[in-house]
Design brief:
The chain has 532 residues and is of the alpha/beta class. It is built from 18 helices and 21 strands. An eight-stranded parallel beta barrel has the order 1-2-3-4-5-6-7-8, surrounded by nine helices. Strands 16-19-17-18-20 form a five-stranded mixed barrel. A two-stranded antiparallel ribbon has the order 10-11. Helix 5 runs parallel beside helix 6. The longest helix has 20 residues. Bound molecules: sulfopyruvate (SPV) and magnesium ion.
């Protein structure tokens, strides 16, 4: 059912309806969840929420833009307090059309003069509109509405302005004749007497809405007994939040701590729930591309490092800082950037000093006498399809990880720096082709790795980063098992394991890049890394 139709039903059915004030998207949602059938978009509380006065200090477009958030977050109809219609009949026509566009179900306009003043302020400055002029505004609004069920409520301010019952009835009659769907009769008295007198005299000629802010002691049974169509609780959600905000701001200010605050505020997950985060989560599942396999990482950070001039006396090289961040933390950030949420770090030298957020740890007791393959074997259980294996002492530019992941397959894919082709570094690599430039690096296969590659034949150097796919997991585990069996595991390098995989006839893919990384194994490496 359209919200307009629903609002019309609420005010025309025999049973009383209750409209609750809201002034923002979140308050509107809270009101709906409380069980209310309709919303009152209060001019007073929307202005107050912006910290301005209820004197048309907000422009009409600021109001309509804001109210759009309230209708977007709710499914119950909203009756907007349209003040005096923000001008003459022409402004009123524009208002009605705009309100329909933003999903507002109805509007109330009051027979005062623009810019209006809140009805409870200064009785002496509540000039009433000329009746004919106001009736023209009602007609213009009704003529312009596109949806026949859009509701226009005419609000009679004669009692507020102190003109008495006779004037109130005269105006109600005129507004009704001009086409208003309902009358809102307002009073500033703490007794409902003048409202009841009006209701008795009006005799149900049209639906009537009340705002019992001042005559709040009146039992709702009395409104029911007089066939009131709808009661508007006009400002209580905002007033409740003001009290809560004042108390909490003061408490935290005085305590300089959140200790007494946290138990007395809505939980953060309640905020997320009200914002509709649950919907976004399921939409993400539906619309975002999913990685076939989630990304995880094993980082080998057991070694002390060579010559750092004492910098690594109490921390392993992976914890040395580059541009203010430990090398390991930077690496984890780089991996997290590509969706890696599960990292295991193998620690050894000064294990207690290796402490980075978001990682789990495996400790190597004999890191002094063992090498890379031994460390990897300690984390063997973590080797799953979609695992990055990396040395803990490399500093990278992210495009290297990106290129590796783009080329990654079910096999094993290794990142190779072709700028070091022909150099005598360890972990030399020979592919079935040299790096022939930016657009020709796809599909290169490993032919040899490590000492088996004479420097002059090398196409580059493995940078200490590889990706293992589903098949690669099995091959790498087999290689670890074989090294364990022949007693070479303890001293073996990762390159040795890769050589075994290759020797067993399995394909290893090579992804070339040029520079953009540093291996921080000594002071010179640390200097290189700072330039990245
Ligand atoms: C409002 O809520 O803004 C109203 C009702 O117009 S009252 O404040 O009582 O005028
Ligand atoms: Mg108002």
């Amino acid at each position: 059912m359209r919200k307009t139709t629903r609002l019309r039903q609420l005010i025309t059915r025999p049973e009383i309806a209750f409209l609750m004030e809201a002034h923002s998207g979140i308050s509107a949602r809270i009101v709906e969840e409380a069980g209310f059938e309709g919303l009152w978009g209060s001019g007073l509380t929307i202005s107050a929420g912006f910290g301005v006065r209820d004197n048309n200090e907000l422009s009409w477009t600021q109001v309509t833009d804001h109210v759009a958030f309230m209708t977007e977050t709710t499914s119950i109809p909203l009756l907007l307090d349209g003040d005096t219609g923000y001008g003459n009949f022409n402004n009123m026509r524009r208002l009605v059309r705009k309100l329909e566009q933003v999903g507002v179900a109805g509007v109330t306009i009051e027979d005062k003069v623009f810019p209006k003043t809140n009805s409870f302020l200064r009785a002496e400055v509540q000039p009433l509109a000329d009746i004919d002029e106001f009736c023209g505004k009602i007609k213009a609004g009704k003529d312009r509405q596109g949806d026949p069920d859009f509701v226009l409520v005419a609000r009679v301010e004669a009692l507020i302005a102190g003109w008495g019952l006779g004037e109130a009835l005269k105006r109600a009659e005129a507004h009704h004749d001009a086409g208003a769907d309902a009358i809102l009769i307002h009073s500033r008295q703490s007794s409902p007497a003048e409202i009841f007198a009006f209701l008795d005299a009006w005799g149900g000629r049209s639906p009537v809405l009340l705002v019992p802010t001042k005559y709040w002691r009146t039992p709702t049974a009395d409104f029911r007994a007089r066939n009131v169509s709808a009661v508007i609780w006009a400002n209580h959600v905002l007033r409740a939040s003001i009290s809560a905000m004042q108390a909490m701001a003061k408490q935290i200010h005085d305590d300089e701590s959140l200790l007494n605050a946290e138990p007395n505020v809505a939980a953060l997950h309640e905020v997320f729930r009200l914002q509709g985060d649950g919907e976004l989560e399921s939409a993400e599942k539906r619309y975002l591309p999913v990685r076939a396999t989630p990304l995880s990482a094993i980082v080998l950070a057991a070694g002390a490092g060579a010559d750092f001039g004492g910098l690594n006396a109490n921390v392993p090289k992976a914890m040395l800082k580059v541009q203010g961040r430990p090398i390991l933390a930077r690496l984890l950030d780089d991996f997290a950037h590509f969706g890696c949420r599960n990292t295991v770090v193998v620690r050894g030298y000064h294990a207690e000093a290796v402490d980075v957020a978001g990682a789990r740890f495996v400790d190597s007791a004999d890191f002094e006498t063992t090498g890379e393959a031994h460390s990897l074997a300690l984390a063997e259980a973590e080797l799953t399809a979609g695992t990055l294996v990396a040395f803990g002492d490399i500093v990278l530019k992210r495009h290297i990880v990106q290129a590796l992941l783009e080329e990654a397959t079910n096999a094993i894919t290794i990142a190779v720096d072709s700028a070091l082709a022909g150099a005598g570094e360890p972990d030399r690599v020979r592919g079935d082709r040299a790096d022939a430039g930016r657009f020709s690096f796809d599909g290169v296969r490993l032919e040899a790795i490590g000492d088996a590659v004479p420097p002059r034949d090398s196409h580059g150097v493995w940078i200490g980063l590889l990706h293992v796919g589903a098949d690669g997991v099995t091959w790498l585990r087999d290689a670890i098992g074989a090294a364990r069996t022949d007693g070479t595991l303890a001293r073996a390098s990762i390159a040795d394991l890769l050589a075994r995989v290759h020797a067993a006839g399995h394909p290893i893919r090579v992804v070339y890049s040029r520079g953009g990384w540093a291996n921080v194994n000594d002071l010179a490496g640390l200097v290189d890394a700072s330039g990245l």
